[in-house]
Amino acid sequence: MSNQESTTENGTFQIVAMRVHDEVFGIQIAIINTVITPQPITPVPQTESFVKGVMNLRGKILPVLDLRERFGFSSEPTDCDKNSRIVIVETNGLTAGLIVDEVSEVLTISKSSVEPPSTLLRSLDEKMITGICRTMLSGRGHEPEEGFVLLLDVEAVLTEGLPQYNMDEAVAA
Fold it and tell me: What sign does the CA torsion over 165, 162, 39, 28 have?
């Protein structure tokens, strides 16, 4: 579990579950500013392919990242594009929009149900995934189903592998 998660007295915390490709990811609810329908995005030259550009949200210019491309999934349109959302996150002074296929639900997760990510994950993914938990999820057919939620370290999603945004290098300089 990352330091972004605030655990309640009974050892639980809340996340927003979202689908990206066929996976379910979770982001701690406290760092989500808002969830919006897709807005116009202005491309920015010479950025990584998963950085789609910038958007204007209430007068503030925000970078927008596509989580499909960030995690190496196909960026081809799917049947859930009509459900796509931009999740606006704020963590440690960083604010950005994350494009996801669908925002499904708010879940209460027990800290004891979170396991560390497997060492078999690629090293970059391992830095961005703080834990994995098994829980009941809303099924695509609205029937609850048991599934895994990959818990994201949003700061790592926004900075890992991007030397120009690496917070550790900026602090060391």
Answer: negative
Task: Give residues with Cβ within 8 angstroms of 141, minimum separation 6.
Answer: none
Q: What is the C-alpha separation between 91 and 89, in angstroms, rounded?
A: 7
SS (H, E, C) 12-29: EEEEEEEEECCEEEEEEH
The dihedral built from the CA positions of residue 71, 162, 95 and 149, taken in this order, carries a sign that is positive
Q: Edge-to-edge strand order for the sheet containing 129-137?
A: 102-110, 12-20, 23-28, 145-152, 129-137, 114-115
Question: pLDDT per residue over 65-76, tens digit each?
Answer: 999 999 988 766
Q: Please list the alpha-helical segments (H only) found in the chain.
A: 67-70, 123-128, 154-159, 167-172
| 3-state SS class at 68 | helix
Whole-model pTM? Answer: 0.84
74 vs 103 pLDDT, higher one: 103
Which among 107, 103, 117, 172 is positioned nearest to 150, based on CA atoms? 117
Residue pointed to by tokens 């995690």: 71
